[in-house]
Amino acid sequence: MQKTYYDPADLKKFGKITEWSEELGNKFFDYYAKVFEEGKLSAREKSLIALAVAHTEQCPYCIDAYTQDGLQRGITKEEMMEALHVGAAIKGGATLVHGVQMMNKVNKLEM
Amino acid sequence: MIKSLHKRNSELANSKRQLEILSNGIFQNGDLPKFKDKIAETGQFPLKAKKLEILQINVGYMCNQVCEHCHVDAGPDRKEIMTRQTMQQCLEVIKNTGAHTLDLTGGAPEMNPDFRWFVEEASKVGVKDFIVRSNLTIIRANKKYYDLPEFFKKHNVHVISSMPHWTRGKTDKQRGTGVFDKSIKALQELNAVGYGMPDSSLRLDLVYNPSGAFLPGNQASMEKDFKKALLDDFEINFHNLFTITNLPISRFLDYLIASENYEDYMYALIEAYNPQTVKSVMCTNTLSISWDGYLYDCDFNQMLNLPVNSKVKHISDYNEELLEGRTIMISQHCYGCTAGAGSSCQGSVT
């Protein structure tokens, strides 16, 4: 029995998802490749966005992939950490902003 | 400053041990294909030498730096230095070869006591592109080297220098404490005499090697980032950036094994294997000459002690016709030159 849910070697098998649904798999990978091309945003900026989202999504495969990608692009560890804090701030803010809902509910129910 | 593998008596100072590592393990048990089999998939084995274009001469392994990734295992403790007699033999070849590029490397080539004499003599021959690979810090290492920018200019030398990053942290980690500041100063001095300036014919190119177990990014994008950062932060100009993949030999192999990155790195190289690069790898148009005059397909093969597969083994017996068409000596380190956009001493190959 597999001892962990995540295996680093599985990242290399990502492309195999097309085997069980070729058309949708290929469409996804075509879209994915297009998204990360140089555009109005540079590929470097997109890599940092991906790294931040990888952390907010807590996807170990994506963290592995976009840390490596960042290093390859010459992105410094300080820049990577700064991007992560953007993700953390939004994640934290998203939690806290729901506090308004809690406050509304309390104010409505309490005498 | 760390010592060379040779000085430390490391088992990896032995090229045979390096070649064993590169042929055993994941390559012996079939987890990964050998380079020979991989290029055979597209009918590119055996790899053959074409017409000679680049003559690369390693004038010695002595260096003022001890970089963590150095494939030469160079350092102050290396004493292998090309003699004037071997240089004279090289000059005879330079005069008669059709190669358009002469490329001097090391170690720090400037530390060879006959370096200036050799440059003066070689520059008279009139090769189209005369390269000296300077590590930059040598220019600031000692008063006797301070005039190197002027000396290079006088002989119209094309300077190619290593610069792993535009930040101090990444540079010093790979090349040693203080290297970044000295390199910046040296680049400014090269700029001051005209090297690397826009529209200047005094060529100044930089080489980027990743500072760790990862592959280089896209050469054009990295060049853009380097140019912006060096100009904004230090008012430094240069012409082109060459991205070079670290090959898994010598000190970089030692690092990969010690950091438990060796297998993942080999997987990454093979995953990025690009068959389109094979026809343009530098060993097919380059000849590498060692400090003691022996001939190799490339500087990496020189360090692995894999001499050319030819009757001609030494510069004293040089024969271009016999060397052309020779079968290139390969092992698994060659995957470093065929990953992604390919890699050579002149950067990407595609």
TrEMBL record, chain A:
<dbReference type="InterPro" id="IPR026445">
    <property type="entry name" value="AlkhydPrxdase/COmuclacdeCOase"/>
</dbReference>
<dbReference type="InterPro" id="IPR003779">
    <property type="entry name" value="CMD-like"/>
</dbReference>
<dbReference type="InterPro" id="IPR029032">
    <property type="entry name" value="AhpD-like"/>
</dbReference>
<dbReference type="Pfam" id="PF02627">
    <property type="entry name" value="CMD"/>
</dbReference>
<dbReference type="InterPro" id="IPR004675">
    <property type="entry name" value="AhpD_core"/>
</dbReference>
<feature type="domain" description="Carboxymuconolactone decarboxylase-like">
    <location>
        <begin position="23"/>
        <end position="102"/>
    </location>
</feature>
<dbReference type="GO" id="GO:0051920">
    <property type="term" value="F:peroxiredoxin activity"/>
</dbReference>
<protein>
    <submittedName>
        <fullName>4-carboxymuconolactone decarboxylase</fullName>
    </submittedName>
</protein>
Automatic annotation (TrEMBL), chain B:
<dbReference type="InterPro" id="IPR007197">
    <property type="entry name" value="rSAM"/>
</dbReference>
<protein>
    <submittedName>
        <fullName>Arsenosugar biosynthesis radical SAM protein ArsS</fullName>
    </submittedName>
</protein>
<feature type="domain" description="Arsenosugar biosynthesis radical SAM protein ArsS-like C-terminal">
    <location>
        <begin position="215"/>
        <end position="348"/>
    </location>
</feature>
<dbReference type="Pfam" id="PF12345">
    <property type="entry name" value="DUF3641"/>
</dbReference>
<dbReference type="InterPro" id="IPR024521">
    <property type="entry name" value="ArsS-like_C"/>
</dbReference>
<dbReference type="Pfam" id="PF04055">
    <property type="entry name" value="Radical_SAM"/>
</dbReference>
<dbReference type="InterPro" id="IPR058240">
    <property type="entry name" value="rSAM_sf"/>
</dbReference>
<keyword id="KW-0411">Iron-sulfur</keyword>
<dbReference type="InterPro" id="IPR013785">
    <property type="entry name" value="Aldolase_TIM"/>
</dbReference>
<keyword id="KW-0949">S-adenosyl-L-methionine</keyword>
<dbReference type="InterPro" id="IPR026351">
    <property type="entry name" value="rSAM_ArsS-like"/>
</dbReference>
<keyword id="KW-0408">Iron</keyword>
<feature type="domain" description="Radical SAM core">
    <location>
        <begin position="57"/>
        <end position="195"/>
    </location>
</feature>
<keyword id="KW-0479">Metal-binding</keyword>
